[in-house]
From TrEMBL:
This is Ubiquinone biosynthesis O-methyltransferase. Keywords: Transferase, Ubiquinone. The keyword Transferase applies. Residues 45-135 form the Methyltransferase domain. InterPro entries: Methyltransf_25 (IPR041698), SAM-dependent_MTases_sf (IPR029063). It comes from Sulfuracidifex tepidarius. SUPFAM superfamilies: S-adenosyl-L-methionine-dependent methyltransferases (SSF53335). GO terms for molecular function: transferase activity. The lineage of its organism: Archaea, Thermoproteota, Thermoprotei, Sulfolobales, Sulfolobaceae.
């Protein structure tokens, strides 16, 4: 199971889909900069998992000192090719203290629905690790389970050049996991597939594990905005204090 998860993020198909979100990184970077100013949090940022470096790139352009970490070697290679201003390391976010030893960051960000690939206990461990390597703020962004299960179609097509992508999603209410199956087509021919599952959280559930990890939630907003989160929002972003 562990190997299967890693293979998804090493997949060229998956990376092509993430590349479509590159410009969204600039919006996230602008909002995170506002957070840093609002809370006087500092300029040293850990971006984990950093993926292709889309947020790290724009944060570094704004003058932040950014280190990105991702378990995928291909993601880190792509991130390093995309920007020279941030630094990147291959690593598992469940073991950040092993990567950084005594090094601390002002802010740690966990953006784009990056929890839920393991079990809840491992998600708590990830949050504990983020707390351990951070001095001021931890920012977590997740899809809102309540919105997803009632509003997202179970089958849909997207385009991730050069692939047409058919996604089929099934929600298991007994485990609160979303099972995702994607088929990739090029020139009307099937060229590949990936499959994974992810635990989805409602707000009260994610706040519970945030607190269990020793973090103190200070603000909950919708996506990269300052709108107070409501159940109708597709994303929830939790700003938490380390102390």
């Amino acid at each position: 199971m562990e190997t299967e998860k890693k293979l998804v993020f090493e997949s060229d198909f998956y990376i092509k889909q993430i590349m479509k979100l590159w410009d969204e990184g600039e919006k996230w970077a602008s909002w995170i900069s506002e957070v840093a100013n609002k809370y006087n949090a500092g300029k040293k940022i850990l971006d984990v998992p950093c993926g292709i470096g889309r947020i790290s790139h724009f944060l570094s352009k704004k003058g932040f000192d950014v280190v990105g970490v991702d378990i995928s070697e291909k993601m880190i290679k792509t991130a390093s090719e995309n920007t020279s201003k941030a630094s990147f390391r291959i690593g598992d976010m469940r073991y950040l203290t092993n990567i950084f030893n005594e090094e601390k960051f002002d802010i740690a960000i966990n953006i784009n629905n990056s929890l839920g690939y393991y079990n809840e206990e491992e998600d708590v461990r990830i949050l504990e690790q983020l707390r351990e390597v951070t001095k001021n703020l931890v920012i977590i962004n997740l899809d809102n389970r309540d919105y997803t299960i009632y509003n997202k179609p179970s089958e849909y097509y997207t385009y991730a050049p050069p692939y047409l992508v058919l996604s089929k999603e099934t929600f298991d209410p007994t485990t609160s996991r979303l099972i995702v199956k994607r088929t990739y087509f090029m020139d009307d021919k099937e060229v590949g597939k990936i499959e994974y599952s992810q635990r989805l959280y409602s707000l009260h559930e994610v706040l519970a594990i945030v607190k269990k990890a020793g973090l103190k939630p200070v603000e909950v907003v919708a996506g990269h905005s300052w709108k107070n989160f409501s159940i109708d929002d597709s994303e929830m972003t939790i700003i938490s204090s380390v102390s």
